[in-house]
Amino acid sequence: MASWTFLTNHALVLSFLARHSRITAREIAENIHITERAVRKIIADLEAEGYIAKKKEGRGIKYRINPDLSLRHESYQEIIIGDFLEGLGWKRRKRKPVAEANVITAEAPAK
Q1: Integer Cα distance of 36 and 26 in angstroms
Q2: 8 A C-beta contact, residue 63 and residue 50
Q3: Contacts (Cβ under 8 Å, ≥6 apart) of 28
Q4: Does any domain span residue 57?
Q5: With helix as H, strand as E and coil as C, how does 44-89 read?
Q6: Residue 53 pairs with which residues in a beta bridge?
Q7: CA distance 12 to 93
Q8: Measured at the alpha carbon of residue 45, what is the angle toward residues 35 and 88, in degrees to the nearest 5?
Q9: Is the residue at 97 inside a domain?
């Protein structure tokens, strides 16, 4: 009899993608003990709903997490994915500050 866990396969795949942006579906499958085909289906689900974005880099794929979306279950929609993943050990990337030179102001021109 298989033991149960608190996290769904979708949550496990998302957490692996968050911590290892260049991990392969095969590596995830080996770690969470599901088929590679199941991992690819979950990745497609996550991408279709906007939770992840994929970018081709050389022969591999780099994954980026959208930390601003909420959990899907109606009881937990106030929790955003970034906060959930941080609870699982994910470290948020620091966002680059907007350079002051690029900020447009509404000041009147100097005379």
Answers
A1: 5
A2: no
A3: 12, 13, 16, 17, 39
A4: yes
A5: HHHHHCCCEEEEEECCEEEEEECCCCECCCHHHCCCEHHHHHHHCC
A6: 64
A7: 20
A8: 75
A9: no
- Cα separation, 24 vs 22, in Å, equals 7
Domain total for the chain?
1
Residue 60 has which token pair?
A: 């591999």
State the pTM of this model.
0.79
Q: Name the residue range of residue 69's domain.
A: 9-89
Q: Are 39 and 13 in contact (CB under 8 A)?
A: yes
Q: Could you read off the pLDDT of 48-95 as tens digits, one per residue?
A: 999 999 999 999 999 999 999 999 999 999 999 999 999 988 888 776
Whole-number Cα distances in Å, 98 to 22, 25, 34: 27, 35, 42
Give the pLDDT confidence of 14-56 residue by residue, as tens digits: 999 999 999 999 999 999 999 999 999 999 999 999 999 999 9
| Residues facing residue 56 across a β-bridge | 61
- Residue 102: per-residue pLDDT: 55
